[in-house]
Specification:
heterodimer, A: 296 residues, mainly alpha, MetI-like fold, 13 helices, 70% helix, disordered N terminus, B: 355 residues, alpha+beta, Rossmann fold, five-stranded antiparallel β-sheet, 19 strands
Chain lengths: 296, 355
């Protein structure tokens, strides 16, 4: 293959060598740009979290800290002075339970909506969809009253229930479309083989649904893990706070000092579980996102 | 092993949508019944009602003399092969075949033995540990069959099991199917829209159209004495020549030629004549019913030529005939003999067979 450079080409590119694979170079440039553009903020946080305070505030900015400018101090402080392990446990507890509840309630509902002939099915679906359209802040004001009336402040339920409720519509809609593209023959075949309904759902349908469950589960988990406003308002006791709230409330030694190091460290600690989770389930997620695109 | 009976089976989804209308038939032990018909004729619905996946609106399904209407599919002791094979994707071939047996709490040794037997018959031994995703279409098909065979069911149900295979493989699997089910004692109900499958596999064929049973009989009967115009045109390839004709005394005019009617036909002013392309032949000594025309199309089918002929005396009248490819004939003024014993006569209004 030869590339012919036209003499009238608008770019002032070199006319001498036509064997340079411009397409490939451009492609890699674009990839590099995209990666740097998306990862730079994360890398910046990681960098800040391991630099000494002096290096953080130094001018000009230290991009490549020397050995004497590196420290694990911020991380150690996070756990020694700020008791970050408590917040991690709180966050994990609330996120895991609300995710499991979401899947456990949403999947059967989605299955029923996908497979059974329910009168008013379109209405139910419409209602589910409408729920997702409510402005978050409106829900928040109502919930605040409810939490106060029920005395649920500083109770995990005050977060678990709203998180589950907010994630349910998405779970139902995603799972329903997944169930719809599962071949019905499989379920018929299971019935003829002698599976009863529960066995069929548990032994035949559930294993095939895992990719979709993992995908929606992770989305629900990320929402619950990152949620700030409810957690800030409903949890006032120090021992009940979640990571986003705790991170935001990290204070410096004086009122006017912004604790960049600890903030960056808490961000990294807060993000790491999500990264690990996604990496661990990566293959399943890809399966889940592409399910139905190819006939299995 | 048990007789399967359908009594006045009707399925209605609504007032207007009635895919199965008052169907009664029975399948004895060792019989192979094929339900054949164009798409939408209700054949799959019948199968699903036998399986218990759909409930009939009216009528009963009896297996071995027992009414199974109230029983769940799993309690009817039937085995079904689906068009899409419906293999469980998360189980190995071995587990797929054994799944139905495990649910019946059979002893592990017994399950093992049955799976081995079925896998030997179908040549699945090297594939037992694979997942269905790693199998070819033909292999999946055999796994689905094995899953049905190990069950030793009272009735086998097969829903278009060959239609997802390519043409060559289909022919081969069709032959395998015939051998496998000849060794089985249980009744088999097979659904297809392919008349070749219906003719080659079955001991009994039920031709369905529009929810009604059109004809029930051996493949030979269906081919030789089709009960009405629909069966005549649906069974047989190439399709039968079907020509509505006006009656002149005791004969009909086919263009310029006269064709005598059998003596026992009711006196009506018109009649439908049917003759299969393979029964039209070049005239021999003593043939007196001859039709003449010009050939306008020749299709080479390999061992024979399918020719289309425009009959002299009526330009709108065309006949198709199968002639051996080694025969010699001219395209102009070709004469073909109509053997009277191979002509079918049907009523113009009821479309029922007359002779």
């Amino acid at each position: 293959m030869t590339t012919v450079t036209k003499p009238t080409a608008p770019t002032p590119s070199s006319t001498s060598d036509s064997s340079i694979p411009w397409k490939r170079i451009l492609l890699w440039l674009a990839i590099a740009f995209t990666v740097i553009f998306s990862l730079a903020p994360v890398l910046w946080q990681v960098l800040t979290s391991i630099k000494t305070n002096a290096a953080i505030t130094a001018d000009p900015t230290v991009y490549f800290p020397g050995l004497d400018q590196l420290t694990a101090r911020h991380y150690i402080d996070l756990f020694r002075e700020n008791q970050f392990q408590i917040y991690i446990i709180n966050s994990a507890l609330v996120s895991v339970i609300s995710t499991i509840l979401c899947l456990a309630l949403g999947s059967p509902a989605a299955y029923a909506l996908a497979r059974l002939r329910i009168p008013g099915e379109q209405l139910v679906l419409g209602a589910v969809l409408v729920v997702t359209l409510f402005p978050y802040i409106l829900l928040f004001l109502g919930l605040l009253e409810i939490v106060r009336a029920l005395g649920l402040a500083n109770n995990y339920l005050a977060l678990i229930v709203p998180y589950t409720a907010i994630n349910l519509p998405l779970t139902i809609l995603v799972m329903r479309s997944f169930f719809q593209q599962l071949p019905k023959d499989l379920e018929d075949s299971a019935k003829v083989d002698g599976y009863n309904t529960l066995q069929m759902l548990w032994q035949i349908v559930l294993p095939m649904t895992l990719p979709a469950l993992v995908t929606t589960g992770i989305l629900a988990f990320i929402f619950a893990w990152n949620e700030f406003l409810f957690a800030l308002t409903f949890m006032t006791r120090e021992s009940m706070k979640t990571i986003p709230v705790a991170a935001a409330q990290l204070g410096g030694t004086t009122l006017f000092e912004v604790p960049y190091g600890p903030l960056a460290a808490s961000t990294v600690v807060g993000t790491l579980p999500l990264v690990l989770l996604v990496l661990f389930f990566q293959r399943r997620i890809v399966q889940g996102l592409t399910a139905g695109s190819v006939k299995g | 092993m048990a007789k399967l009976e359908l009594q006045n089976l009707t399925k209605a989804y609504s007032q207007k949508i009635v895919p199965v209308k008052d169907l009664s038939l029975s399948v004895e032990d060792g019989e192979f019944l094929t339900l054949v018909g164009p798409s939408g004729c209700g054949k799959s619905t019948i199968l699903r009602m036998i399986a218990g996946l759909d409930q009939p609106t009216e009528g009963r399904v009896l297996i071995g003399g027992k009414d199974v209407n109230p029983l769940a599919p799993g309690d009817r002791n039937i085995a079904m092969v689906f068009q899409s094979y419906a293999l469980y994707p998360h189980m190995s071939v071995q587990q797929n075949i054994a799944s139905g047996l495990k649910l019946r709490n059979l002893a592990t040794g017994d399950i093992q033995k049955r799976v081995q037997d079925a896998s030997r018959v179908l040549g699945l031994d090297p594939l037992l540990d694979r997942r269905p995703a790693k199998l070819s279409g033909g292999q999946r098909q055999r796994v689905a069959l094995a899953r049905a065979l190990v069950r030793n069911p009272d009735v086998f149900l097969l829903d278009e099991p060959l239609s997802n295979l390519d043409a060559l493989l289909r022919e081969q699997v069709r032959a395998d199917l015939k051998q496998i089910f000849e060794d089985q004692q249980s009744p088999v109900v097979y659904v297809t829209h392919d008349q070749t499958e219906a003719m080659t596999l079955s001991s009994k064929v039920a031709v369905l159209s529009d929810g009604y049973l059109q004809q029930l009989g051996s493949p030979n009967e269906i081919y030789k004495t089709p009960a009405n115009r629909f069966v005549a045109s649906f069974i047989g390839s190439p399709q039968m020549n079907i020509i509505p004709l006006e009656r002149v005394n005791n004969a009909v005019l086919l263009g310029d030629s006269k064709v005598d009617l059998p003596t026992n036909l009711p006196a009506k002013s018109s009649v439908i004549m049917g003759i299969r392309p393979e029964h039209l032949r070049l005239p021999r000594e003593g043939d007196h019913q001859i039709v003449q025309g010009n050939v306008f199309l020749v299709e080479n089918l390999g061992m024979s030529d399918l020719i289309s002929l425009r009959v002299h005396g009526d330009d709108n009248l065309t006949l198709r005939a199968l002639l051996p490819s080694d025969a010699t004939w001219s395209r102009e003024n070709l004469k073909l003999a109509l053997p009277p014993e191979s002509i079918h006569w049907f009523d113009t209004e009821t479309e029922a067979r007359l002779n």
